[in-house]
């Protein structure tokens, strides 16, 4: 019984890494679905009202709730690393923190590991990442990226664009609005002959909240 539970937890942990496998099974049927992944830092389960916590009634999340209603909501899962950058590294590689090198914020991901975006590129996908990246390597496996410097700032943040990682330029406006605009820009200008995988990381919940 214990082994069965452990196997179930491992499968939950690697839910995002299933993107590496899912297209392969679908290719046999001639199907390649578009993938839109939004990663939002620092949202505990109790903060999302779709899960019914009394705390969430103080600040309901109707838009996230609508996604849960129309899509998939995980009721039995756990986080592989509760810090933003290490959890992002786990998602990118499908590996635990001790395997991908990003155990905490100060450590760097082992960029020799395969990112799921590279696998999707090899499978004919157009790939993009927009917003918070916060890892000590340039985004790899992405045809398009527009990422924040470090954790980014709420207002007038600096971004690095495709092929110019490290060359951060300031843009005027609220970070989440800018991130959304660039994500839409990618979707409008991408190669329409390819399926896409677009990953976005709004920065708004990460630093200290505005008063």
Number of helices: 7
Mean pLDDT: 83
Beta-sheet strand percentage?
5-15%
Shape: globular
Order of helices and strands: HHEHHHHEEEEHE
Describe the strand arrangement of the main beta sheet, using strand numbers: 1-6-2-3-4-5
Low-pLDDT runs of 5+ residues are 1-21
C-alpha end-to-end distance:
49 Å
**CA-atom Rg in angstroms:** 18 Å
Percent helix range:
25-40%
Determine the structural class based on helices, strands and strand pairing. alpha/beta
Quick structural summary:
This protein has 7 helices and 6 strands, in the order H-H-E-H-H-H-H-E-E-E-E-H-E. It has 211 residues and is an alpha/beta fold.
Walk me through this protein's architecture:
The chain is an alpha/beta fold and 211 residues long. Helix content is 30%, strand content 13%. Strands 1-6-2-3-4-5 form a six-stranded mixed sheet, sandwiched between helices. Mean pLDDT is 83; it is low at 1-21.
List keywords for this structure.
211 residues, alpha/beta, 6-stranded mixed beta sheet, 7 helices, 30% helix, globular, disordered N terminus
């Amino acid at each position: 019984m214990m082994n069965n539970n452990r196997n179930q937890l491992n499968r939950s942990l690697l839910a995002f890494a299933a993107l590496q496998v899912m297209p392969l099974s679908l290719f046999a049927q001639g199907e390649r679905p578009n993938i839109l992944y939004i990663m939002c830092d620092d949202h505990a389960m109790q903060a999302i009202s779709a899960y019914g916590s009394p705390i969430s009634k103080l600040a309901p999340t109707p838009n996230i709730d609508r996604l849960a209603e129309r899509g998939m909501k995980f009721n039995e899962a756990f986080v592989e690393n509760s810090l933003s950058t290490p959890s992002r590294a786990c998602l990118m590689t499908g590996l635990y923190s001790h395997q991908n090198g990003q155990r905490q914020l100060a450590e760097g991901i082992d960029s020799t590991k395969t990112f799921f975006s590279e696998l999707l590129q090899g499978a004919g996908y157009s790939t993009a990442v927009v917003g918070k990246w916060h890892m000590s390597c340039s985004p790899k496996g992405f045809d398009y990226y527009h990422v924040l410097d470090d954790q980014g700032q709420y207002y007038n943040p600096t971004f690095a664009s495709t092929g110019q990682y490290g060359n951060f330029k300031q843009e005027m406006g609220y970070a989440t609005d800018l991130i959304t605009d660039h994500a839409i820009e990618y979707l409008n200008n991408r190669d329409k002959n390819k399926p896409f995988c677009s990953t976005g990381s709004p920065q708004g919940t990460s630093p200290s909240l505005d008063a």
